[in-house]
Design goal:
The complex is a heterotrimer of chains A (510), B (498) and C (182). With 498 residues, chain B is of the alpha+beta class. Chain B contains 16 helices and 23 strands. Chain B has helices at 11-23, 64-73, 90-98, 108-115, 117-126, 142-152, 178-193, 250-267, 298-305, 309-317, 397-409, 420-428, 430-433, 441-444, 454-476, 489-497, and strands at residues 4-7, 27-32, 47-50, 78-80, 102-103, 156-160, 170-172, 198-202, 208-216, 222-234, 237-243, 271-279, 285-291, 334-341, 343-344, 350-351, 354-355, 358-360, 367-371, 378-379, 386-394, 412-414, 482-484. In chain B, the strands form six sheets. Chain B has an eight-stranded antiparallel β-sheet with strand order 13-12-9-10-11-14-21-19. Chain B has a five-stranded parallel β-sheet with strand order 3-2-1-4-5. Helix content of chain C is 7%, strand content 51%. Chain C has one helix at residues 91-102; strands at residues 14-19, 24-28, 36-37, 40-41, 44-50, 53-58, 61-71, 74-79, 82-90, 112-113, 118-123, 130-131, 136-142, 145-150, 155-160, 167-168, 173-179. Classes of the chains: A alpha/beta (510), B alpha+beta (498), C mainly beta (182). The interface between B and C is large, with 33 and 41 residues. Strand 10 (250-252) of chain A pairs antiparallel with strand 23 (482-484) of chain B, so a sheet runs across the interface.
Chain lengths: 510, 498, 182
């Protein structure tokens, strides 16, 4: 055997494989695994591992299957070390065999060991049936690694093709799931099974397309029309977050903000307490220009979560959206908020809460689906978080929802309120009906008495000054000063220390 | 004159009235309401009366009792209602008088009469005003209807007397289809309103909208200050007005003016008022209605006549004699008014609300700006969308169009979309330049592509690309736009404790 | 690496702005000179940029642009009170998508190979630059003669494999150009 010749042949084989891949993938409006890695990483920085690993069982003798349908390795993202694996659909449908799975597990373990993020570019038909139990054991190892790494290194899954059956659970356990519309799918059981078992006709797109997961199920954090934008999103996300839970946050050198527009904050909250306004507008004004990166944009829109930069430094934002369902907290919103708070806490990202919440969502459907258990997740997440936490109350802060949204009592470091804030156990209309029940029953002109009582309630109880006097909030601030106040406050909190007794882990009400 | 005037209005017209009132030495009062606590007009008045209103109720400006109560409390001598709101509410005018407050406008009875179209038309006919030919009484028989239509000539419009919102309306273009249309209109009206009465009127295909400005005092003197053309409308709301009108001759102007003055004299009208005409393609004209208030578009008349209409309105209300004679009124040059509404002309004029980060108006000797907003103002959804008027004077019509276009180009606003691009498109259109535009221009000629310009689109493409490229370079470039700070105490502490 | 890949995250300076009405603008943003829009160099001066506003002047007319909406690569710009909506792509993602939509494979490459053995004297372009057909890209000295070698298509310089002073063999790949002709 001429070793030099073999070396050359293998190189050529790899070359041919890529040519075939290009032809196959491009026909499906998709990129090849290598092309995707080139988008993800800085040019020429990709260092591939186990390039020529062979499948445990060759399926087609006449076709090269170097790498067993997955390319793994480490590259740089804007100079920072990141591990990745990219499944290659053109090799045995990207199916996960033993070698394939072992390669992924290996790169996951390296990422954990070296404290670098791990990115999966997923395009796979699922477990390789021919390899049977071997394939499943590989999956198991991947899942185990996902959980081991969770909270230590950020994990990303970019779904760029099908992900079906057990394969969906690895992305589901990572921190961010990014999908493309029309070319990617995620489901536990596909349309054929649905048809067979339930006799329901549904297309792949309707069952588990990018838009469905971004809007309805909340599985996907982002959805893009184009693969390039989907992959570049990982680069964008990485510019906000640290490489591991010990790493310092990246600080932007490009700081600018809209000074003129700060004035608008004084006027943005309508006097009519039932009129909606757009909380996103407030966020955009407060943070550095164009720095707000919204997560779960289309899912549970009554709460807004995302990263932003304040004076160049990353913060996580959790905000009620009065524009959608009046900002009420329902099951989806609580879960969405809780997950984000826990991510921020795990990676030391300070949290800013913008609060305008009338309460938890009432209703049979919500109660029966478990608003108690799910609302508790958000409460638990906030209580548990040890990162710097600041709340700005823009308008309503009523009842339990006030407590949940990062109040001082549950460990919030600072609570500020705008003069428009209404802080109380419940809204005026409901409160007077209970407190002044006897007076109201006796009154002849109920309507005007009600109006009078509402005014009195607002003046005497539901205002921020009362809460300030009682020390329930730290300060009532001028809205146009909010940015300044926040920068100082986060600076004060930057060396926050905490102590808590040892434990294995808490028991979040899942 | 140490009198107090309360302006029961807001926005630019409040500021406009304050200007004239101060000229006359009056002390000006305005009302500050919850819906607009930082409005610009509040800064101009001598005194601001604060009211606390329930936001679920209608605004104070529509509440006669509340306004009169304020006036009485502050010993107000006179109330100017501006336009809109209570300006043509006879009960409000009467309530003012009952409380010994002068209402700046005509008598309550005339406001009431002119507010009822049928009464107004009857009074106009008695004064010799031409009316659109039509049936005086309801018709229920198709044969009678056809005979009537044959007589006044086609096209005609059939209107259900009980109708509204287009129900039971038919436009009939030729005699052959008359009976058929009448029957269907009759049946539709009967089914919809339980009343099949139909009126027939001549239908004007492409009408123009003209109006004459009248000034009359309480001593029987009445003059007219020429006409304005307000044909350019969208959703029946005027948007560009000019004075004089290009489509009538001096002779016709004199004739129509005389008719208007005669009508006002006959009914005993005093204060400023407007008589509206509809002008057919053959230049025949018909009385439409009379507005018993100062109009939004009054500045164009002021620009060409040099008369301060609001000043005269107040002086007349105080009982002064109108010293201006008809022969004193000279028309000098041309004036165009463009209304700046916060509406999106690219999206069916849907209203826009929000924050005005920066607004800058054109400036110049021949330009007059009437506005109720400035930088950092907020446009609320509670009131109408007009935030300003740009009025431009020129030597003649061509000059005026040119200057107006230049003025519109100098207008800029950030944060909200306005009707300014629409006005620009109108002023550039062939129909406006040739003065052949009618009230149907927006429906028949206008489309949103006309708002665009090739240069603007190209610059926009460049701006969009630069914006995208900035981020593209940032995230796709291999060199980071950020620095990783050295470890802070917090992280160190965490490390030690592990 | 084993293969020359079609897709690269090149720092291209050529973009395509597509309007919602179908109009397309091919916009090249050179580092230091005026932008080239649809192959034409425009006398547009970038005056100011602040927050969402930028102003330009062209033929002594001032244009103020406001970015009113941004969603991924979809950007809305307001100029003179009128909004224009665009979706922006880099030339590569644009071409790729176009070709992918057509279902054909590779993007046409018109690479420059060395016509003869010699020595590189000068390279006139840098990576990411836009070249027109017939425009000289580099000069090559061979047999004591300097030859200017030109691009054979309109395109973008993808990669330059040589530096001045380097000796090259016949048929050696010198410069990769991606055609932008359709």
């Amino acid at each position: 055997m001429n070793k030099r010749k073999v070396f050359e042949l293998r190189r050529k084989g790899l070359h041919d494989m890529e040519d075939i891949a290009i032809q196959k993938q491009h026909l499906k409006l998709k990129l090849t695994a290598r092309e995707r890695l080139n988008i993800l990483f800085d040019e020429g920085s990709f260092f591939e591992l186990n390039t020529f690993a062979e499948p445990a069982k060759a399926i087609k003798k006449n076709q090269n299957a170097y790498g067993d349908g997955v390319i793994v390795g480490r590259g740089l993202v804007q100079g920072r070390s990141v591990f990745a694996y990219a499944q290659d659909f053109t090799v045995m449908g990207g199916s996960l065999g033993y070698t394939h799975g072992t390669k992924i597990a290996k790169v996951q373990e390296m990422a954990l060991k070296f404290g670098a993020p791990c990115v999966g570019l997923i395009d796979s038909g699922g477990a390789r049936i021919q390899e049977g139990i071997h394939s499943l054991s590989a999956y198991a190892r991947i899942f185990q690694n996902n959980v081991k790494s969770s909270g230590i290194i950020p994990q990303f899954s970019v779904i760029l093709g099908p992900a079906a059956g057990g394969a969906v659970y690895s992305p589901a356990m990572t921190d961010f799931v990014i999908m493309t519309n029309k070319t990617s799918y995620m489901f536990v059981t596909g349309p054929e099974v649905v048809k067979e078992v339930l006799n329901q006709d549904i297309t792949m797109d309707e069952l588990g397309g990018g838009n469905i997961h971004a809007e309805k199920s909340g599985v996907a954090h982002f959805v893009f029309e184009d693969e390039e934008h989907a992959i570049v999103q990982v680069r964008k996300l990485l510019s906000y977050i640290p490489l591991n839970n010990f790493d310092a946050l990246p600080v932007s050198t490009d700081i600018s903000f809209n000074e003129e527009r700060q004035e608008y904050l004084n006027k943005i909250v309508p006097d009519d307490t039932n009129r909606p306004y757009d909380m996103k507008e407030i966020i955009h004004i407060l943070v550095d220009n164009n720095s707000f990166l919204e997560i779960h944009e289309k899912f549970a829109q009554n709460i807004i979560v995302g990263f932003a930069r304040l004076d160049g430094k990353t913060i996580g934002i959790v905000a009620n959206q009065p524009k959608v369902m009046a900002g009420t907290l329902d099951i989806n919103a609580s879960v969405k908020g809780a997950r984000f708070v826990r991510f921020c806490d795990a990676f030391n990202i300070p949290i800013l809460v913008l609060e305008d919440v009338p309460g938890f969502m009432p209703g049979i459907e919500q109660e029966h689906t478990g608003i108690i258990r799910n609302g508790a997740k958000l409460l638990y997440a906030f209580c548990e978080a040890t990162v710097p936490r600041i709340t700005i109350i823009t308008r309503k802060a009523y009842g339990g929802a006030f407590v949940v949204m990062n109040s001082l009592g549950i460990g919030g470091d600072f609570n500020f309120a705008w003069p428009t804030a209404e802080i109380a156990v419940m809204g005026p209309a409901g409160a007077i009906k209970i407190v002044n029940r006897t007076e109201l029953a006796a009154a002849t002109d109920k309507v005007s008495l009600e109006k009078e009582l509402v005014e009195k309630y607002k003046d005497e109880i539901a205002n921020p000054f009362k809460a300030e006097e009682l020390g329930m909030i730290d300060d009532v601030i001028k809205p146009s000063d909010t940015r300044k106040v926040l920068i100082t406050a986060f600076d004060i909190l930057s060396n926050k220390q905490y102590a808590q007794p040892e434990r294995k882990h808490g028991n979040i009400p899942l | 004159m140490n009198k107090k005037i309360l302006i029961a209005n807001r926005n630019e017209i409040a500021i406009r009235i304050i200007r004239s009132a101060k000229k006359l030495g009056l002390t000006t009062y305005v009302i500050q309401c919850n819906r607009e606590p930082d409005a610009l007009y509040l800064e101009y008045a001598d005194e601001v009366v604060q009211v606390k209103e329930d936001l679920s109720d209608k605004t104070i400006f529509l509440n006669p009792e509340a306004i009169v109560k304020i006036a009485v409390e502050h010993q107000i001598d006179m109330i100017h209602p501006g336009y809109g709101f209570l300006s043509e509410n006879p009960d409000f005018a009467a309530l003012c008088e009952e409380n010994g407050i002068i209402f700046v406008g005509p008598s309550p009875q005339l406001i009431r009469d002119m507010g009822l179209k049928t009464v107004a038309k009857k009074m106009a006919a008695q004064a010799g005003m031409p009316l659109v030919p039509g049936s005086a009484d309801a018709i229920t028989d198709a044969k009678v209807a056809k005979a009537f239509a044959d007589n006044i000539g086609y096209p005609v419009i059939l209107k259900a007397s009980a109708g509204g919102g287009g129900r039971g309306m038919r436009i009939v273009e030729k005699p052959e289809t008359m009976e058929r249309h009448f029957k269907s209109a009759y049946e539709e009206a009967l089914a919809a309103f339980g009343n099949g009465d139909i009126f027939i009127e001549k239908y004007l295909v492409n009408p123009k909208h003209l109006e004459f400005q009248i000034l009359g005092d309480k001593h029987g003197n009445v003059i007219h200050l020429g006409e304005r053309e307000c044909s350019l409308q969208r959703k029946h709301q005027k948007i560009i007005e000019e004075a004089p009108a290009a489509s009538i001759s001096d002779d016709q102007r004199a004739r129509m003016g005389e008719l208007a003055v005669n009508f006002a004299k006959t009914i005993g009208y005093y204060s400023a008022g407007t008589i509206e005409f509809i002008l057919a393609e053959d230049c025949s004209y018909y009385f439409m209605e009379m507005n018993t208030r100062i109009q939004v578009e009054h500045p164009v008349t002021e620009m060409i006549t040099g008369v301060d209409l609001i000043e005269w309105q107040i002086r007349i209300a105080l009982g002064e004699t109108l010293t201006l004679k008809q022969e004193d009124i000279r028309f000098n040059g041309w004036a165009i008014e463009c209304r700046v509404n916060t509406e999106d002309p690219q999206n069916r004029f849907s209203p826009q609300t929000g924050f005005i980060e920066k607004v800058s108006f054109p400036q110049g000797d021949h330009i007059r700006i009437e506005t109720g907003v400035k930088n950092f103002s907020v446009v609320t959804p509670y009131f109408d969308s007009m935030i300003a008027k740009i009025i431009v004077h020129g030597d003649d019509r061509r000059d005026c169009i040119k200057k107006t276009l230049r003025a519109l180009n100098d207008f800029s606003i950030s944060g909200l979309k306005t009707t300014v691009p629409f006005c620009r498109t109108v002023l550039r259109s062939k129909e406006f330049v040739e003065a052949t535009y009618t009230t149907r221009w927006v429906d028949s000629v206008f489309n949103t592509d006309m708002l665009e310009s090739e240069e603007d689109a190209m610059i926009a493409a460049l701006a969009a690309t630069i914006t995208y490229a900035k981020e593209y370079f940032q995230y796709s470039s291999d060199s980071p736009m950020f620095k990783s700070e050295s470890l802070n105490v917090w992280v160190l502490n965490k490390r030690i404790s592990k | 690496m084993a293969t020359q890949y079609i897709y690269k995250r090149d720092a291209t300076r050529l973009f395509i702005a597509m309007r919602d009405n179908g109009a397309r603008y091919k916009i090249y943003l050179p580092k230091e000179s005026n932008p080239i829009i649809n192959e034409e160099e425009k006398d547009i001066f970038f005056i100011d940029h602040k927050n969402n506003f930028s102003s330009f002047s062209m033929n002594d007319v001032l244009y103020r642009c406001e970015i009113t909406q941004r969603d991924q690569n979809r950007i809305t710009v307001k100029v003179n009170g009128v909004e224009y909506k665009f979706s922006i792509e880099s030339i590569f993602s644009y071409l790729r998508r176009n070709l992918l939509n057509k279902g054909t494979g590779a993007i046409a490459a018109n690479n420059i190979k060395s016509p003869m053995p010699g020595k590189i004297v000068d390279v006139f372009m840098s990576e990411g630059d836009l070249v027109n057909e017939g425009e000289p890209v580099l000069s090559l000295e061979a047999m004591k003669m300097q030859n200017e070698i030109s691009a054979s298509c309109n395109g973008v310089i993808r990669k330059i494999h040589i530096v001045p002073g380097q000796s090259v063999m016949q048929d050696e790949l010198l410069v990769e150009i991606t055609s932008i002709d359709e």
